Amino acid sequence: MTKIALITGATSGIGYATALELASKGYNIIATGRRQERLQVLQEKIGTDKVYQLVFDVRDKEAVLKAMASLPQAWQQIEVLVNNAGNAHGLAPVQDGSLDDWDAMIDINVKGLLYVTKAVLPLMQAQGKGHIVNIGSIAGKEVYPNGNVYCASKHAVDALSKAMRMDLVQQGIKVSEVNPGLVETEFSEVRFKGDSERAATVYQGYQPLQAQDVAELIGFMVTRPAHVNLAEVMILPTDQASATILNKQQ
Ligand code: NDP
Ligand code: 8X3
């Protein structure tokens, strides 16, 4: 039987690349995000019968539960959940931070991940197996100036990944965490609210990761034998040594 992977934030960046990567490994994909037109493009690229679109905002718990409840029977045997949807909003010292940005990061990166997990888990429990891959960050292991609430949200993902692994170990459900360093996606455009010039400067002077690099790691993780769980992997550009130390040639 074809395996099914649900990927949140499949409209862009790491989630989009992961959808293509897992599809190339034979998975059927439940692709989620708010931008339906992009899910449509993804579906056309992979194949109409191989992708099921679910459009919802992860912040809206009713919408998450409703979307999951709407899944046709044939799409309910989810084996892999990639909790990828997330972003940074703003980059400011705590004294200047925007309350709306803080709400967005905590609501999307932490609460959204929990809502989706809560909705998917019964489907995995019914099968007695499953694999949850949470996309954390190097920002969940370290903090950097002005990163305050984004880093806190990713530290929460780190704690939740460890906690979920403990809670689910008796149920045969694997929990893995992927912690990327700098990846060139729409991430910085979102962080800087559409200022693409400022966003581009984040990736100048060194070679960042591409979304495909992270997607390939996720593809490797979910295709390990049943008895193997790659619990936690940090993936960095060769030019990055820590959250703040980069080999930048300016
Ligand atoms: P992108 O901005 O390219 O993609 C973010 C994805 O998240 C989009 O598909 C977006 O879909 C989705 N998303 C954002 N907000 C919501 C929401 N409220 N409801 C539903 N979906 C949402 O960034 P990346 O691919 O880089 O980011 C993916 C993950 O990787 C994030 O968790 C990020 O924190 C993490 N990460 C990124 C790194 C980087 O340097 N780029 C490094 C380390 C971790 P849509 O807007 O259509 O809803
Ligand atoms: C994204 C990487 O260093 O911009 O999580 O926070 S960083």
From TrEMBL:
The keyword Hydrolase is assigned to this record: no
Protein family according to the UniProt entry: Belongs to the short-chain dehydrogenases/reductases (SDR) family.
Domain of life: Bacteria
Name recorded for this polypeptide: SDR family NAD(P)-dependent oxidoreductase
Single Gene Ontology MF annotation: oxidoreductase activity, acting on the CH-OH group of donors, NAD or NADP as acceptor
Keywords of this entry: Oxidoreductase
Matching PROSITE patterns: ADH_SHORT
